Amino acid sequence: MSRQVVPVRETRRIDRLLWMLRLTRTRGAAQDLVCEGHVRVNGRRVLRCSQAIAVGDIVTMPHNEAVRIIEILDLPSRRGPPVEALAMFRDHTPGANASVSQEGEAS
């Protein structure tokens, strides 16, 4: 009999992912955001810190006084430098590209 091998989809916990991508300063802050119901994954509210996140998921969360929308492009293996973290997601927040280009021009 032949067995079909189903590829395992690599995932990360939402609290660790937010911390590793430097979207929160501490893992505890990420856990607070999730447990208070402020984070959504693919449009559904997440209430468990153990929620699995995979490549392609859309995460919506509060950021300062606005809402941040990001698409996960790759899963980090560690909490690396900011440049490494920025390569792991695409920001779909309205006006995010304009603010980045303005900051780059001002520097």
Segments where pLDDT lies below 50 for 5+ residues? 99-107
| Total of DSSP H or I helical runs spanning 4+ residues | 4
At the fold tier of CATH, the topology name is Structural Genomics Hypothetical 15.5 Kd Protein In mrcA-pckA Intergenic Region, Chain A
Largest sheet: 5 strands, antiparallel
Description:
This protein has helices spanning 14-20, 27-35, 82-86, 96-106, and strands at residues 12-13, 39-41, 44-46, 52-53, 58-63, 66-72, 89-91. By secondary structure, the protein is an alpha+beta fold. It has one domain: Structural Genomics Hypothetical 15.5 Kd Protein In mrcA-pckA Intergenic Region, Chain A (Roll), CATH 3.10.290. Helix 1 (14-20) packs across helix 2. It starts with 11 loop residues before the first strand and ends with a helix. Residues 99-107 have low confidence and may be disordered. It comes from Croceicoccus pelagius. This is RNA-binding S4 domain-containing protein.
Please give the structural blueprint:
Layout: E1 12-13, H1 14-20, H2 27-35, E2 39-41, E3 44-46, E4 52-53, E5 58-63, E6 66-72, H3 82-86, E7 89-91, H4 96-106
Antiparallel strand pairs: 1-4, 2-3, 2-5, 5-6, 6-7
What is the compact description of this entry?
The chain has helices spanning 14-20, 27-35, 82-86, 96-106, and strands spanning 12-13, 39-41, 44-46, 52-53, 58-63, 66-72, 89-91. By secondary structure, the chain is α+β, with helices and mostly antiparallel strands. The chain has one domain (12-106): RNA-binding S4 domain (Structural Genomics Hypothetical 15.5 Kd Protein In mrcA-pckA Intergenic Region, Chain A, Roll), CATH 3.10.290.
